[in-house]
UniProtKB/TrEMBL annotation:
NCBIfam families: MAB_1171c_fam. The chain crosses the membrane at residues 6-29, 41-59, 79-98, 105-123, 143-162, 174-194, 214-233. It holds the Pfam family DUF6545. This is DUF6545 domain-containing protein. InterPro entries: DUF6545 (IPR046675), MAB_1171c-like (IPR050039). Keywords: Membrane, Transmembrane, Transmembrane helix. The keyword Membrane applies. It comes from Streptomyces anulatus. Residues 242-317 form the DUF6545 domain.
């Protein structure tokens, strides 16, 4: 384990980003596979997670006996990264792109993949794919120019489209997801821009900044994928709180006016832990039944009692 705190932090961030992104991919898989509109985004995130996994330093450290295959791992990582970039472009242009533009995207993706494979195959014997210094890289400088150029183009278009449609979105969930995804893509773009700067200039200060970039990118893309799930958890928490807080009053009213209840009353613990319907419906039913019971009981209250109740409610700042 390295003693450099910066390197250790970058490795931890990379691992956290990879694990979080895989968790988001697996959690969103059922709904994404059922929805054609979500498959492109899900595929992009899955490909990015696979590429980040192959980039793990711990993976290389655990395979010292397979040094001959390490460059194949790097090639696979870069090819998967290009597929992820293409999937991102497909997702962000799906609603507006013409059939010709989509075909052009497929052709460009195939061309980039083919070029990377050929440049790797025709390069001298090499190990890991690295930008060593200005004008020095393995397997070759053209290989890295194709790779960084592909990513920068895809990331630039994605960031612009996410910002554009995120600003126009009326749905807060969609707006948050697009902005988070665009921000994660921008961080990935900075990583590839840094690699290009290292390849073309003498800029040793860039290297430490690149290490945590992909981990941050993974966390932001995972957050974008999990926006619907997080919103669902928030709604569920609100519904559970409504059920729990309203149940005592609801139970007292149901005991007095049992005819308003649609079903037999249950303990509120069971309504929370083992509901017979979604929590939102349970909460809605309790609100409606409470209101109906109050309306019925109003007929038995004289004006003085009603005025006293209103005054006490106003003093307690109970909303009308």
């Amino acid at each position: 384990m390295t003693s450099d705190p910066g390197v250790s932090f970058a490795a931890l961030l990379s691992a956290l980003g990879t694990v979080t992104l895989w968790s988001a991919v697996l959690l969103r898989a059922p709904s994404a596979l059922r929805s054609p509109n979500q498959r492109g985004l899900w595929l992009a995130a899955a490909a990015a997670a696979a590429a980040m996994t192959l980039h793990w330093p711990v993976l290389h450290a655990r395979l010292p006996l397979f040094d001959a295959y390490l460059h194949h791992l790097d090639l696979a990582r870069n090819l998967i990264g290009v597929v992820s970039a293409a999937a991102v472009l497909h997702f962000v242009t799906m609603a507006t792109a013409s059939g010709r533009l989509k075909k052009s995207l497929y052709v460009l993706t195939a061309g980039a993949l083919t070029a990377l494979v050929l440049l790797d195959a025709t390069a001298p014997a090499h190990g890991l794919h690295l930008v060593v210094d200005r004008g020095t890289a393995t397997p070759s400088v053209p290989y890295w120019l194709v790779l960084t150029g592909t990513h920068l183009l895809a990331n630039g278009v994605c960031v612009a489209m996410c910002q554009r449609y995120g600003a126009r979105a009326d749905d807060p969930q969609l707006r948050a997801a697009l902005w988070l995804f665009g921000l994660g893509t921008a961080v990935a773009g900075l990583y590839w821009a840094g690699q290009l700067v290292r390849l073309l200039t003498d800029a040793p200060w860039v290297t430490p900044l690149l290490a945590p970039a992909m981990g941050v990118h993974g966390l932001l893309r995972a957050a974008a994928l999990l926006v619907p799930a997080l919103c669902a958890v928030r709604r569920a928490g609100t519904d559970i709180a409504t059920i729990w807080r309203l149940s005592p009053l609801w139970r007292e009213l149901i005991d007095v006016v049992p005819e308003v209840a649609l079903s037999r009353p249950r303990p509120r613990v069971l309504d929370v832990l083992w509901p017979l319907a979604p929590w939102r419906l349970v909460a809605y039913r309790k609100v409606i039944e409470t209101r109906d019971a109050i309306l019925i009981l109003q007929g038995y209250a004289d004006l003085d009692t009603a005025d006293t109740a209103r005054a006490r409610a106003a003093a307690a700042r109970v909303p009308a």
